[in-house]
Amino acid sequence: MNTVYKGEHLLPGHIGQFFVVLSFAAALLAAISYYFATTNTNKLDKSWLKMARAAFYINTLSILGLGTCLFYVIYNHYFEYHYAWAYTSRSLPVYYIIAGFWNGQEGGFLLWAFWQAVLGNILIRRSKSWEQPVMTILSLSQVVLASMLLGIEFLGQRIGSSPFLLLRNAVEGPIFSSPDYLSFIKDGQGMNPLLQNYWMVIHPPVLFLGLASVAIPFCYAIAGLWQKRYKEWVNPAIPYTLFAVMILGVGVIMGSLWAYESLNFGGFWAWDPVENASIFPWLTLVAGLHVLIVFKNTGHSYFTATVLILLSFIMVLYESFLARSGVLGETSVHAFTDLGMFGQLVGYMVIFLVLSVYFLVVRWKELPITKKDEETYSREFWMFVGAIFLSLSCFHLVLVTSIPVWNKMFGTKLAPPTDLVTHYNIIQASFAVVIAILMGFTQFLKYKKTDTTRFFITTILYLVFAALITALVVYVSGIYKLHFVFQLVMLAAIFSILINAKVLADAFKGKFKLTGSAVAHIGFGLMLVGALISAGTRKVVSTNDKGIGLANFTKAANERENIMIYKNEPMKMGPYVVTYLGDSVSEPNHYYKVNYKRFDDNGKLVEEFLLKPNVQINPQMGLTPSPDTKHYLFRDLYTHITALPPLRTKPVNETADAGHGQENDDQNYDEPVKHEIQVGDTIRYREGYIVLKGLNKKAQVQDIPLGVNDVAVGAQLEVFSHDKTYESEPVYMIKNGSVFDFARKVDDAGLKLRFSKILPDKGRVEITVYQQPENKKPWIVMSALEFPYINFLWSGTIIMVIGFLLSIFRRNKELKTT
User: Fold this and answer.
1) Which residue in 302, 450, 452, 447 sits closest to 380, CA to CA?
2) What is 12-55 written as a DSSP string?
3) Quick one: how far is CA 677 from the chain centroid?
4) CA 352 to CA 364: how far, in whole Å?
5) For the CA atoms of the chain, what is the radius of gyration?
């Protein structure tokens, strides 16, 4: 007998699932139609092309339709759907509900398919004679992405995971035997606290646009091989390759900035396996871009350029496999759990890998291979060398990051290097030295042949100048304390910046062709400088030099990097005096106010500011901190909470207590002291004093209406504590002949205040003061880190993006004139 469930909203799910199936069918029809439009020898017959375009438009509209249905389900908190229940909750603000759209795997695939559809529509309008073959390949990619959302059984195998899967079909439990099970589900699981950041709203869309963009040059490369138009595809593919490199790079840097600002990795890059995987395609695509430019200008290195472009999209698919198959579940904090799509993810990769290998093998004898070797002192030779080193850098990352994959494939038990971070740092820094130097001196080389004497003289002069600047930077920044390879990275980066700055200066004299590359290279050089100094000379400000053991309080790797500070007790920390002032709540975040003061040698206050690092106390994840940062022009001061008192999970600030139906927590305070005072009198307490400023005869208490004969009077108190002033108004009430009083807490001062009596015959009132015990003061354990010159990293990113934009404009202009 079928159970009839109450309260379920099945219509949006049915409509959404219809759009899922329609998007798959339309993508399949588009791929088939574009294939026949490509192979059709009758050029006057446009029927296949018209059908293909119509099918792709339907695929696009279907993706928009199913996205609308999914957002409708999420926004209205229809927790009968597993996706809404698993990734959102009623307490989330709207922007996190929007971010919940791509919080899960299904949403990620949907976002990816959306961007590919957008790019496909652009190609339909702009690719001209390339539309049919290019769109055949892109439509095939859409077919595979749409299959990831189907969530159907076929020949005993589950294909995809539907975002409209019902909770009762996804989770087992006795609750679902009840027709009104929804009455027991009051809220969803919500968003992982680590993801509750504004970067979650903007980072995934940019990153997925980057992943989708990598498919376009891949489609051009396959189309060129397929149609035997080996050279023609390069020019139209270069602007799309530049765009993909730019957007994917921005997406990766956004992730770094998110990690730096909020995810508490102690910096902007942790060599996490999924972080590593995100730069696989970027490295190979940058390499492919440079070799494409070499081929365009000289006719050399066609095979290498094509392979690198094809490999970049394969790396996108491999990255997706690593992040989504569950294979990295035990080694990465970013990896998704397996949704049963392991085989599909492998299949996606295999389809396009086989397609690439097939066309390379079949067309091998016809490929435009240049028999003449490049001149050693030519730009194309050294750009080719740079591409090889970028590829080797990627190969090293793939090799080490994929150790769990090798173990799964071959049944081995390979272990990663013991000190994985140092391993990555040293080897990748070695690659960075070579790449940065090549970014510099290749600008002095010309295509095909260069005047070697002038080249050597100019290069040596700039190298000497760069060495002098590097020596100064290394000494001032403290880089000399690090491994020698990092000093070489600094030399190479400064060398590259100087030479490209010279090229940029020449551009203002009329040599505009190299403007984009010069600006992009300057940006990348600044990124290397910023990353090297900030990570290599990161300074621990919160040094625990008092021998206080914190191992029982904090999970921090080094307890010497954490200090415990008690509320309202100033403490010396490096050049600062820090004071924990108190905490406040803005659900779901708990904010802890830390006052910073810096004095000169004469004791004069020269700087003061307040930082508010916050935490979420999550049942599944425990304490989840997010830092607050003081930004300076040349450094950042980064502060986060690492431990809290075990029972202090709900901080309060100026809240009502111990009155009408309220919780009594008197046991948390010393014995109360009663004071009979009149307006203007002062009450002394351990850490300050309280002044009765007046009596408010029109006081109100929330949700308690007053009758004609009822009275409510508020004691207007001003509390002074450690140079801070707080206002508080406890209330004395007579209602229906009964007496109530409503206490007020001034948590920052460690007080609870009650207006306990009115003494009309004395013209006085009684104020009862509760004070927190001195030996039970609230405390926090915090860590403060200083990142010098971090802004070079972020500004370098912006400059690099500007360089890519200039290059895209130039290449598009060249296309229009050809």
Assistant:
1) 447
2) HHHHHHHHHHHHHHHHHHHHHHHHHHHH-S-TT--HHHHHHHHH
3) 56
4) 18
5) 32
Query: 575 φ, ψ to 5°?
Result: -80, 0
- pLDDT tens digits along 304-358: 999 999 999 999 999 998 888 778 766 655 555 656 678 888 889 999 999 999 9
Residue 273, C-beta contacts closer than 8 angstroms, at least 6 positions apart? 322, 328, 331, 332, 334, 335, 401, 404
Checking if the pLDDT of 374 tops 90, the result is no
Q: Are 46 and 141 in contact (CB under 8 A)?
A: no
Characterize 222-242 residue by residue with b for buried, 16 or more Cβ atoms within 10 angstroms of its Cβ, and e for exposed.
Answer: bbbbbbeebeebbebbbbbbb
How would DSSP label each residue in 410-460? H-------SSHHHHHHHHHHHHHHHHHHHHHHGGG--SS---HHHHHHHHH
Q: How far apart are CA 216 and CA 234, in angstroms?
A: 12
Distance CA 288, CA 304 (A): 8
Mean pLDDT for all residues in the chain? 86
Measured distance CA(221)–CA(130) in Å, rounded: 11
- Long-range contacts, stretch 733-736, CB < 8 angstroms, 24+ apart: 733/660, 733/699, 733/701, 733/704, 734/710, 735/704, 735/706, 735/707, 735/710, 736/707, 736/710
- Tell me how far apart the alpha carbons of residues 106 and 109 are, in angstroms, rounded to a whole number: 5
Tens-digit pLDDT profile for residues 209-230: 999 999 999 999 999 999 999 9
